Amino acid sequence: xxxxxxxxxxxxxxxxxxxxxxxxxxxxxxxxxxxxxxxxxxxxxxxxxxxxxxxxxxxxxxxxxxxxxxxxxxxxxxxxxxxxxxxxxxxxxxxxxxxxxxxxxxxxxxxxxxxxxxxxxxxxxxxxxxx
Length: 131
Known about the structure:
The protein is mainly beta.
């Protein structure tokens, strides 16, 4: 029975976005259906947690909107989820960032995690140009 369930789940599974982690700043593009029209709404915030596995995997994203904290849970395999755009990797030491709910302003900031794309090349000054 379990094998049959996993076969059906694999048919509907989307490609996993394994590069996202808790603490990352992401833009979630989500389809909103209002009557007969469809539009895409972008929700930009910090990932507080990633939970579940397989088709039931979800992420909780938190943003501050007009001074009020807003959290939203997105199912990663939802057909309404268009894409998750990674804005910044941030350095955190926990998998659940619930402590951010009580912080505001500068105390809620996190360090940016160094990655391959963030390494900057330094150019040596040319010999023929005066320094």
